[in-house]
Amino acid sequence: MITLEEKKLQGYKHKLLSFEKGEHKSQDVLEINPRGQNQFKSQGIKLIPDSPAEQALMYQRMMEGLTLTDKLNSVIYYDLLIPEEERHDSAVKRNREGLATELNLWEGYLQKVAAGSYLAGGFSLADVIVFPNIAYAFRFGLSAGRYPKLAKYYSLLKDRPSIKASRPPHWLASPQGYDILKDL
């Protein structure tokens, strides 16, 4: 949705899906081609930079965003994903340490970019992919004090029109999330 908003393609049909109910695996969703090409390069903001160096950085950050997603999910959804008889405190500790290491890596990436900058220079697909993870982390209690660069990045993007238009409606209804990550 962020991409559609950035490309000025408002008016698209959208439906909130419940991952808990498995709606993301419905036949309607599976029929959609997730590998469609960008047919709107000249419309809205350019999401893939022209510079080969910026493109490389953008693709690198996009791919690394998958690791961030995995590490976040391993902490946030541990109790949901792991059967009770298979849960171990040592696994919880290892997952939390892995997420903290990953978040510190992103802090370092943001340390290297100019103040008020995005992940790969200008706003790009890297931000489209990574920002929802950062928003999710803060929704689940991530400390802005411990991760100030991530907090600045979150603040820079959270009021962007494309982000606001694609924010899950229940986040607006209950802006205070959870505290799973507060001590991380």
Automatic annotation (TrEMBL):
Alphabetized Gene3D superfamilies for the sequence: 1.20.1050.10, Glutaredoxin
Entries under CDD domains matching the protein: GST_C_family (cd00299)
Keywords linked to the UniProt accession: Transferase
Domain GST C-terminal: 51-176
UniProt entry tagged with the keyword Transferase: yes
GO molecular function, one term: transferase activity
Pfam families in UniProt: GST_C
Taxonomic superkingdom: Eukaryota
Protein name: Glutathione S-transferase A
Organism: Collichthys lucidus (Big head croaker)
